[in-house]
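Page 47, continued from p. 46.
Same chain as before, 556 aa.
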Amino acid sequence: MKRKILIVFLILILATTMTIPVSCAISIPAETPTETPPPPAPVKPPTETTAPAETPEPTPPPIPSPQPEEKEEVVPEIEVELQTIAVLVDKSTYCQIRTEIERYVEDIENDLQAIVFLYHQNWQNPQEVRNQLLSLKDENLRGAVLIGEIPVPYFEGSWCGIGANVFLSDRYYMDLEDAFFTDEDNDGKFETANYFVKENVARIIWIGRIKPYVTGIEGINLLKNYFERNHQYRMGEISPTERLLVYSPNIHSGPGGTTLEIYLDNMRDSLTSDSDDLSNTLYSRAEINILVGSSGREYLEELQKDYEISSTFCHGTQTTQILGDGTISSEDIETAQPKPYFYFLYSCSNGDFTQEDYIGGHYLFDGNGLVVYTTAAPSMAGADEMQKYVEPLALGLTFGEAAVLESNGSPGAPSLGIPEIILGDPTLHIRPKIGVPRVEVSTTEIDFGEVVAVKDEGLSLSAFEEALEERTITIKNVGTGKLILRMGWFYMENEGAVRGDESVGYYDEPIPPGESSTIEFEFWPKEKGYYIGLAVINTNDPDNPVIVIKLRGRGI
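Result:
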């Protein structure tokens, strides 16, 4: 069942919530009382006076020329489908922090104008959790927050160029419709090699984990403090200083540079917008502080200063990070009580919440932490990895929406991807959202026609360019907010599963309301035969987060 609300600038606030155990919280719009206009001011009767003798009659003032009537600017009406969010809490945790959880649900409803389904029970395995989420698939489910002891999905196999591994990944909960998961050896772990997405691609949802690094009453107190801090942030009682801290181990990570000065300049370029429009970026160059190769002690000292976001790129484990010539531990973070509110930790396994005392949990629960974006297994990234989140967060997307927008990575065949994880609350945003983008696509099918199949061995550049076939589509923003495009997948293959060569080109700056952008697709078959494929484009249009372009062509 789909529900829609109408946005004109002012949105009706969903105010009344009914919580049913092992069921859902239903929001009902509150009635707005009609204001009674104040009574007119009493008219004072005229007082009789004696006019002075022979007073000349005053000259009437000139009649002003009629002025053109000012017309009120009409704000376009944008219909937005009402989103649904699920909150799942294990029964024991819910019973101990029920008041905090129910206030948290109400905060989400008020902040995002969303319907929140609250479930509190004990799920025995990942399949039961997935089935719970599947029951909301037709309710425009956008994401789920998992609080406490919620079953963990595991995968096994090779990924990201790193050998055989067993690692946790909530992708099993994120792909509710189109993913194919198998456990052929019945060991409770899904094989990464068999993961694929069907032709009818639909959006994934975001998942957030709020799980303390300890159990028992200490863990419950950490949760209570976290939800109190979360509430204060939403109420505007906390105002972070708009500054960014970045840690890089050397000048070769991320954008690179031959000297420290060049490297710092390149890093600031990658973390700010190329556009003159400053609304596309989170920070100015002066608001970004970059540590390169600093010691753990220097890093911890910097964490005790006022920053809004901290982004760290270094080697690590579940409970440590290697910085400079030393190592910092979970205990060091607990002692430091860091002041940043949001973290990007590109450090191997920092987000493995199944390990007691995991360091990602210390960043979240100690100090001011609200959201930690990290990985739950060994991974590869760059020191400027967070740059892909700059524009989405600057334009008011929540951390969950930004993660979904960027979830599919570089163009290529669908895959499981890096086991990234959001610790904390993905429904938070750090900048206000202005307007609603709305995407309009010129076509959702591309036929490259007949293209000469040419082997690439020894092919000259001119011959290669001549062999390519090009097609373009136009995407227009017919909404009231800036539209972000991110290329997800683009691939074509023939009956024998032989991939063709393909490329895509597009301008990745946000598209202002009323303007358009073109996307150029190129295809070159390596063998004869019919090819089919998909191009998947992620957007920040709340009702059209995924554009699917069907592709076909024939190699001759």
